[in-house]
């Protein structure tokens, strides 16, 4: 492979030698020798392994370039197998400007193979100095060996992380794409409309409410004092019309958002923070240029040509604004530094935007060049990659672009005519390289209905049938003056669906022919009348609203699969007297990694707001709750939060702080006796397991937990995070995490000696009696959880030999005389003494 790459580079470097201005052809024509080159790698190769065969003829043809058709022709490759049989492959034209042709071959016999490359030669038929010159034919033959044993397979990627990780992701860790992601906003994140959150189709999302960090976006929470009409009044949080944190972006592990200015939800500094630590990386004044240049979306474009491959560095934060005489103008900040680039793209077309396969921003515009009665509709596809990061010469040009007029024809991929009937048509739904739905008329607008009904025309966007009409269908207005509209679609499942506001019913239709497939008959909650918008993902249709429940339907059949929020503990949004709704109104905030993140909010809450509102993470497959965490959602529909790189980031309007939730790092310590002890005695092994996420180092948390914030179990995580970060009471039933203890004894035997669980202070303790003397190394490990990455620590202790037991004093054996005669004599002497004393007392009492 190195040989191939080097050769390509050499040939690529040689191209400019033939790009100089050419003179006229000469006479007689030149007869130019050719030199053939042929490589087969690897050699030897294992049976069944793939061989890369590369052939070319010296330098590229004069003046060959990507933009013309000057190419080598007439290559033939012949492979002769060990058994003498041959296989041939011929190329009339070599598409690569270098004249290099690659072919992959899988041998099926053991032995020696020969490969012959024949270049048939050609006459230079193009104008210029070499016109009519002849490039001679040439051949070359090589061989390679196939052995029975397969070669070791190359490393395709290194394993997924088992420890806390941050960006950058080292370039060889290819498979890490499955755990990493970005949030670039529309059109890269598919939304279900203004009242349904975004669907993050990439990466992972947190399975625990563990908080990584928090930071204020403005003053929030209780104001304090009794000077107001309502005691405990709170700061205004933006409500429904001054929404804060309304368009956050995440790119390359960095979070971008705008701070509010005054009572406006926007207008302040634009900030970049590290997603894992919350550290501020840069901030810019978006009004310094006199125009409020606030990024609308992130842009990561993958550029590929003959010489360069990969996503162009740093990424762009593109701000869209309107300038008189220039239409829609795109400016861009460098996403790594916050520097406003020279990019100034004017006259960007308006239309329906979708994401292309390389990160292109594609805009489709439908224009009627005729009249309503005699239409002449044109459909165009504008491509950002022909404006930003486009090819120029032999490399990338225009990544920061400078001044470019986006309206020129060269910025478009195609411009086609559509055979549409009379009337006004508009794009309703569109999927890249698939299809789009055009609509006209009224599906139903309540009392304002016109009775005319609506038409849908489905148009193919597939390359081989671009612009073809797939089907047309008329739909009468919804009955009973109901308000009906196309709510969403699932093109991968062949379904689009409408919604009736008054009955809160979803009606599914086929994308194959437009026929009706199913009708849910309504969600069953009158409160859902105020918001009835669905979001499809994973082959399902999800809906949540003021009724407080999350419903899940099979998007292909309309069958109700499950409901979250209408059951008992762990499955209830019942609020009782806490809210005017009787329930907590929930909305779909984000769908990611097989989970639905719900946020609770409403249109016009009083201050102070009702209590007990939480974010909830729901299993998208079965509707069970995975975790919840206190927090009031943003805006009237809670559709502004983001998920990327395994983190869920939201603005908690209870305290106006931005929170990042995800799996954080942990630290484990272990101690054993520092002095030796005698074998046979027990040793106490103790230590701590702590949460070392960046948030634990914040001023408030560090002051309250000078010895560190203890790590706790997943089951205790919700109440513990609310205690650590949200000033809620300390929970009394906190459980810690499991610690496994092992030892390596003086005989080099490694063994597990048991497990223990840390307490609410993070401490663990374990008593163990060593069984042999000598030095022990003790290992403590925390395997990690949904909340924390694993951690380990080690210590040591010494068990000395047990102290020797003192020998007993020897006692001589007792004789018969000692046993019986000596005690008798002693008793007689005692008796004589007693009698003598009695006689003396009697004599003293006589007169």
What topology does this entry show?
Elements: H1 2-14, E1 31-32, E2 36-41, E3 45-46, E4 51-57, E5 73-80, E6 86-93, E7 101-105, E8 111-119, E9 122-123, E10 134-135, E11 138-147, E12 190-191, E13 198-200, E14 211-216, E15 249-251, E16 254-261, E17 264-274, E18 280-284, E19 297-299, E20 302-304, E21 309-311, E22 316-323, E23 327-334, E24 344-346, E25 352-355, E26 361-368, E27 377-383, E28 390-392, E29 395-397, E30 403-405, E31 412-418, E32 426-431, E33 435-441, E34 454-460, E35 469-475, E36 484-490, E37 495-500, E38 505-510, E39 516-519, E40 534-537, E41 540-544, E42 550-554, E43 560-564, E44 586-592, E45 595-600, E46 614-619, E47 625-630, E48 642-644, E49 647-652, E50 657-661, E51 666-671, E52 677-678, E53 683-691, H2 699-704, E54 709-710, H3 717-726, E55 738-744, E56 750-757, E57 763-768, E58 774-782, E59 791-800, H4 816-844
Parallel strand pairs: 1-10, 3-11, 13-44, 24-30, 52-59
Antiparallel strand pairs: 2-4, 4-7, 5-6, 5-8, 8-11, 9-10, 12-13, 14-50, 15-16, 16-17, 17-18, 19-22, 20-21, 22-23, 25-26, 26-27, 27-31, 28-29, 32-33, 33-34, 34-35, 36-37, 37-38, 38-39, 40-41, 41-42, 42-43, 44-45, 45-46, 46-47, 48-49, 49-50, 51-53, 53-54, 53-57, 55-56, 55-58, 58-59
